[in-house]
Amino acid sequence: MRLRFLGKGGSDLGGCPSLYTTDQGSYLVQGWETDRPATVEIPHLLLGYAEPDTFIGAPMQDTGRGTFTLAGRPVAEREILEQLDLAPDELAIEVPKTRRTFYGALSSA
User: Fold this and answer.
1) Which residues does residue 1 pair with via DSSP β-bridges, in sequence order?
2) What is the phi/psi pair of residue 11, to 5°?
3) Do the Cβ atoms of 40 and 91 come closer than 8 Å?
4) Which of 3, 12, 51, 81 is paired with 103 by a 20 to 30 Å CA distance?
5) pLDDT tens-place string over residues 2-53
6) Can you give 60-94 as a three-state secondary structure string?
7) Which residues fall within 8 angstroms of residue 29, CB to CB, at 6 or more apart?
8) Pair 85, 41: CB distance under 8 Å
């Protein structure tokens, strides 16, 4: 899997949290590990790095403290992990990249 870095923010340590796009049509999300399996916590601002007309296609829960939690497929492949700067309390997950297809309500005119 090839990664292309999109952006990072929320921590002054390493490269986390970070958002990458993959050559598999998905996003790789690097975030803080939580007590739930395959779930990371990311700052709201990370979503601003998503590619135009796409969004992260995984359900997110707002923590109420400026972050979201979301779950995905844990990344365990060595060749992918070697491309990341993961701290001991961080995890990388792969989530779907979904194309935006609706841009608002239709005009009543």
Assistant:
1) none
2) -150, 150
3) yes
4) 3
5) 999 999 987 666 667 999 999 999 999 999 999 999 999 999 999 999 999 9
6) EEECCCCEEEEECEECCCHHHHCCCCCCCCEEEEE
7) 17, 18, 19, 20, 40, 42, 46, 56, 70, 72, 92, 93, 94, 95
8) no
